[in-house]
Design goal:
8 copies of one chain form a homooctamer. Chain A is built from 9 helices and 11 strands. Chain A is of the alpha/beta class. Chain A folds into 2 domains: about 80 residues, no CATH class; about 130 residues, Rossmann fold, CATH 3.40.50. In chain A, helix 3 crosses helix 4 and helix 5 packs parallel to helix 9.
Chain lengths: ~230, ~230, ~230, ~230, ~230, ~230, ~230, ~230
């Protein structure tokens, strides 16, 4: 196979076409620092190649510009995600996506939509944080059924620890930048999660719903035997 | 009692109706990361339930939108607080709310309004910081009469220590993000307060007037025998 | 009253004899940076004055040296506390001191012994952290009976939030330096506690069991009507 | 079931006997802040109960003291781990444990021994860091076969990103405190790992080989269909 | 030579005319904190003196204002650079400028344009980051030919280490502020680069493409025997 | 003297009229967090009292509003300073205000105008930073003549050290927030100045030209025998 | 004058003999990172030159080794200072050195001894911190008489602000590393002091009693007309 | 070539024999985290291979143990470096190694010895820091002759900026951990160097004399035409 098959050279970017073979899943595009022109070229190249592609941290403006050129793209505003789904994906297994509060929902949606795009069923449990812990306890038996659990929380970020201590599935914790003062834009929640004494929980970057969704999907599908 | 009694499921939020019984006081809503639509649903549910509710860090725009649907809500712009007061609350005891400077007043008002909402009398002592300490000394005999003292200060944040050293009431210190340069948005004041050698003072998060008011009220009312 | 009555001048220190009148409680001595010679002079002066005194962060070596000169002093090694109790104190009310883990016990003991020295009954609930939350739930009804609750925890420091969400008493949270890596010697637990969404909890410095015990006692005794 | 069945009250600790049922695996003991006397009581209680137990961050001195009372305990000095294996565990699946350098081996061993204790086969790939990347490439086909990969690295911590970009298994990255100067005791490696653009990698606390091994085992055994 | 020859006094600035003689290259102007009026005076003085000059971190607005007075200035928007080229410069040797991702291109362009302005040939290799490492490997033989390599990367910043481990030319690493959450505006990439175990790489400030380009040019031209 | 003489109670502020007697100089008003209404009341009260007053970090909008009510106020836009000069001040002695670069001038002007307002002669030496050190050497003999030297610098902040090593007058260093990347908004310059090995230099907060000017004036006038 | 007159070349050090002429005072030696052999050579060279010299942060062991070769050196253990006084110095003016607590005394002594060595009278006011503020008030009239005040404090570091607000002399604040937990080895006190709203106070590095003493002496002697 | 030729598998380490071919220079061993047994195996393997090798951050104890098995190794205690020189290296070109103070010499020696080992002539200029800048000026004409300059400095770390502003050779700056208080173990010097406005200087990790020496040698030899 020559390079033209392995990746497409766009000058400002080199699209990793071999990725699907090597890593098992199509590529994702981080839209935040890209111009409209760059995004249109990237999505067009994937469309041409017949590949699915997901764009994260995309604004509605970016979506509208791409939409003018590639009619098949779809947008989820809450999760800030653009998807181009050319090949249908069969969803397998189950992931639970939980949030501490209402403010954490955008990041939770980024995780949930990513996991769905790559092939997982997702059930959402929102606003079950530790300040009213009976809300979590009402749901815990359902949450336990998931192959993988994503715990999204800002401020003190204790949600992941509490859940992890009550289940036997792997938990991926996502700190969010929700909070103020000494939350230091998510640093507080990040440190809480890294220092959890509840083993079986791993952590991703602040506000990185995408990686949580990707990683959870990867584990879930392997457990589901895909 | 079934779950519908304990909390109301709104999808994006689960309202903690049991809270008043469990914790002694009605719920508070952190407005900062919520959409207008979400806030209207939340306030409506509390109104329906016949509960008082307080919304913090609310903008005037959020208030105006809620007001269109729930005429009983009131707004205090300085403290950025929306209240819905259905059941009247009898105020007990006394809390002193002090600030180092004029810039600390919005956070002090958040504390004062919260304490009043939950049932305390509040007396305000503003701009009595350490750079002109005779202003504090003139007031100290009055401040001493309060069951609980809230000390709100930014920059170097020394106000709490000075007051604590002169009284025998518990002091709750609130660092504010007032300042610049190495104040690091309130970190300097926070560290000053945590490291105070004047025992009897505890600390809340930077700019967290709400928790200071809530905690002071809780202590004050217990001292007042409620 | 002249200065000799208000404080005693030792050159390296000025002992605050007026304190008991002004603040309601006798003085405490931070032993960590003091020489044996300084400590002996300080404890002797308080003995002479007929005052109780408590020394914190004291080593067994410091205690042994003081003991040679002042036979009445007592030492608690776990809490690193020296006490000289000349006037008996009647204990009032009740404080619950809780820890997340076994490693937090020394700081919890510092808090508990301080509260007892200044006049509170203390009940200890150790190793009830969030990784096995049923242990906490078994005790929560007892913990709720206390006038004030002290929650001592290192690592992720979530204990305080969980307890606060289930009680209507004021909670004082003490982060400890237990942990490693990104616990950053207690910073992680401190931030968790400051950013708790469970209102009614205030925070003291990392490992500052003394201030937690002092503040809790002050509140407890006022609630108990002393 | 009453509390005596759910956990054993030792005063300073409450042993979580229900854990194995709830979480799928026996308990682990963090030895670092415990006295010999406490450790002997804890290991004795587990032995009495007929449970396996693993002790982490244990010194040789701690082991020797426990060994005097419980002959069955074993010690691995490199990984600082004490194990008491009463019920045999059948190992399933395969985990790859990789290190960037030789200095990362103790943490890698903590991870590997933990994963083996809880029931995984482990293959070790040490000293394959990015400064001589052909060493990694020689092994990558073998590493790809593992169900889960643990990447242990200090200093710049890039190992995890490189591996993750070349495999389709989940990767758990462990930053280590190896390094000096601006490595800030592992902070540099932690941040590198959290900010990786190679999705599918999650992170644990600095030097937390135990949690990496526990989480990897949990995922591996689920993939292996246990 | 008197002072008027060595620098020109503008009141708000003193232009270093002796620089070219002392340091080998004409002066550079940091435009970010300067007013239009100041910039016009500075560029006019250099033009009068017959000197080339480069302005960095310049906005299109600043350029437009200067252009009104000095027609010879040129602007590169991607690299935010204004140049005034009065004396032609002969380009020597070769520098490779590489980026991890597309978002790093503006800083890479700042570096590349600077190096070209001061007299180097530059070849650009963009979007060859570690998440799809085969893209780098395809280019490495070309990159090796350069006298100096500049590696520009944000997020985890591992690009520089990987390249340095495969070449025998000096590498200058430029961390960028691309990323979010715990990237802390480039701090993560900076620490990664400083802690690289691949010797032969040195580092410049976050987003400082200018210094990377300047330093690389200086080394390249000396190697090229200029 | 009663309280009305010592300070004026405005509710939101308590104006320190005794200050001039106690501290030797009239009061200063930090305008940044004050409303127009508050500023008008404050300046009016000082005018009524016949006191001079200086307002720092004031916007042109704030000035315009005050000007409508108090015609005597004056504004310096570069230094963001409002002054009301009712009693004339005789300037004594001499202070040198130096900057590293052009971007540091606004903070330098804040310092210079403050020192002039309180009664010092000021000579300005701008853009004499260490990258072209001959510019500093040309001026050093003049700088040496000042009673006090203020060194204002951002980025690496080395200016103060260099000057201090060459003079025998006290130097006050002001770090500025000029810079980017790892300058961390002035932290880099602050640390450089605090760690200077050139003894005789003291430091103020980042961008705190006001305190530098105040302190320098205080020392200068005492040296000048006022 | 040739170089041999301006400084003495020792290979590992170049002694600045011209300093006394240029800066007004003899040189100081930072002993912390020097070997005994280096210190002996340095002190011998100054003795030979007939210069006074002061060594800071010196251990008793270093002193004993130097003493074997240069009998005239003297040592103050509390301040960790070695002095060689060949030419007598006449003390002028007056400096007040104040501490918050007893633990700050070593740094205060470093400041006091330095100021005395370079020619100032020093009066010490120890243990007058803010937790018992009447102790400070008793002394304030005496403190006001000094030309310069040094305020040494750890923990919250508020002493300097309080004093500065009550005097019209310049204050130099020295943060100390006394404290624990979030004092972060003096960072808390440093930030407090930098952010003081009491203008007229400048700050030196944590624990840098030497620079405080040097700077205070320099100002004091200029005020005293030397 | 098969893998046995490319690297030697020792289990705990994989020795990079291909390195010399790929990178131009033999391998270096970071001794700090290695056991004696590991070091002996590593040095023996290199000896067997006939390769030169350099060990950094080695203790005298490590050296003594290796010496027992490999008589040819040599040790430099000041620079903490072990060398095994089997093939002689011809030194080319010239590097200047400068330090700010005497305490920086160990790191400077690490840099100098590394550069000499890899084939450069080195001239040392020690104790020429900015507090007595005439010492630097006396040497600057000699320093200018070097192809590359290494500037080693702790505390404020300004040395590199001053030198860079006066020469036209590339400068590599090494921050050292010399200092105390807010030097934060070299962070202050690191930030100073990264934020230098003197272009042409690049930076390595705190105390990383090895990388400075390696990088300087690499550049020097290329300039020297090797």
């Amino acid at each position: 196979m020559n390079n033209t098959d392995k990746y497409k050279e766009l000058g400002f970017a080199k699209l990793d076409f071999e990725r699907s073979k090597r890593r098992g899943y199509p590529e994702a595009v981080f839209c935040e620092c890209k111009t409209n022109e760059q995004l249109i070229k990237i999505f067009s190249a994937f469309k041409e190649q017949g590949s699915n592609v997901i764009g994260t941290r995309a604004t509605i403006e970016q979506y509208n510009e791409i939409k003018k050129h590639i009619n098949e793209v779809e947008y989820n505003e809450k999760g800030r995600i653009i998807t181009l789904t050319i090949k249908p994906i069969e969803k397998k297994g189950e992931i639970a996506v939980c949030t501490g509060g209402t403010g954490d929902i955008p990041i939770a949606e980024e995780a949930a939509l990513t996991a769905e795009f790559f092939g997982s069923n997702v059930i959402r449990y929102y606003d079950i944080g530790v300040s009213g812990i009976h809300r979590l306890f009402d749901k815990i038996d359902d949450i336990r059924k998931a192959n993988v659990i994503i715990a999204v929380a800002g401020m003190e970020g204790a949600l992941g620890s509490i859940i992890t201590g009550m289940v036997n599935s792997p938990v991926i914790a996502v700190p969010t930048s929700i909070g103020y003062g000494s939350s230091f834009k998510g640093l507080s929640a990040l440190l809480t999660m890294l220092n959890s004494c509840a083993e079986g929980m791993t952590v991703v970057n602040i506000d990185n719903g995408f990686n949580a969704g990707y990683s959870a999907n990867q584990i879930n599908r392997k457990i589901a035997g895909v």
